[in-house]
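Dear colleagues,

For the upcoming journal club I promised to circulate an example of a predicted protein-ligand complex. I picked one with adenosine monophosphate because it came up in last month's discussion. The inputs are reproduced below in full, followed by the predicted structure.
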Amino acid sequence: MYSYNKSNSGRGMAFSSKRGRRPGSGQSGRSGGRRPAGQYIDPARLVRVARLAEAVDYQAVNKFSDFQVHALIKSNLTTKGYEIPSPIQDQTIPQALLGQDIIGIANTGTGKTAAFAIPLLHKLMTEKGSGALIIAPTRELAEQIQDECRSIAKGSGLSGALLIGGSSMGAQLRDLKDRPRIIIGTPGRIKDHIERGTLKLSQFNTVVLDEVDRMLDMGFVGDVQFILSRLADKRQSFFFSATLDARVRGLIETFANEPVLVSLKTTDASEHVNQDVVRYSSASDKMDKLHDILLKSDVEKVIVFDETQRKVERLSQELVSRGFPADAIHGGKSQGQRQRALSRFKKSDVTILVATDVAARGIDVADITHVINFSMPQSYEDYVHRVGRAGRAGRVGHALTFINQ
Ligand code: AMP
């Protein structure tokens, strides 16, 4: 059980869940064999000059002090240095505090976590016996949400449980026995607990689905529908997604009650990124070109994407043997190893992170200057997600994609 009174680092976890994986996504049990061929991507789409977002001109209507939320939340927000609500927070929080269902269309990095966490934690602090469930597509995102909730609710004594795959069942079962008020987790593990009878959601009257589009991409639709059907009938729902396509609409229409749509996605994240290709002729030429790029002084912090766990591991070892400060993150590593790699990268102890697509999803590292696609992504959509890791917080990022001549 973790409590919102103290800080508590995540537990060591190893991979075991087999649910909801996309072929070749790198988080599956596959140990790095060949992936099925992906979609053809025209190289012309990989070359672009960045535009900076217009969103910087946004004038917030509210201040955090205007919101009718628990005083503890306000003082924790001040401690966190949150002064002005981000656009998604400015428009979501007042509606959410009225009890409305919300559909938020926003990219990662817009402050969407606090947009749902603030009203949700206020409700938990002021409504006795209520419970909130937050579902995220990946373990890393679930942990980031947990960190944000803990810091906003610090000192409240609210109890929680983190139900993510790969993590010890025993510890989760112990946490659940204490009847936590807030549960954050990934769909497969939450469903496991419901099926075992160790998690009862009938008193949970707030639910958040974060990155709904990613959840559907990863094949979690059945699990999510199952989980939502177990919640209290009278409830408040939050759906956050980067896109509102027909699939996302379909899911939301089934489960939402007259939702308010808050859409702040002005441009694709990839539009803030200078994009270019790097042509190579052989494996050794490819490695040499990567080596030269990483030596450039403006390449301060970089994610290098490769396609399989094995290739990611090999590339990271090769870079380390060449003296580069690199680490790797992929589904073949234990949760503890992944957390360590991520935290070293966040602190800039290593400035190069080699990753598979799924392992890198939802990672919030603001100062990434470069994304390098050492292998082509499976689809243009994956490409846009990768590239959006750079160019955050109003800065121009850079993306380079390796292409075989
Ligand atoms: P998110 O989109 O929720 O992942 O948030 C992106 C980053 O913005 C995180 O590092 C948050 O801590 C930070 N953040 C969120 N809201 C605010 C705010 N109102 N003021 C300053 N930083 C914020």
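Two points we might discuss: DSSP finds 14 helices and 14 strands in the chain. Residues 112-126 form the longest helix (15 residues).

See you all on Thursday,
B. R.
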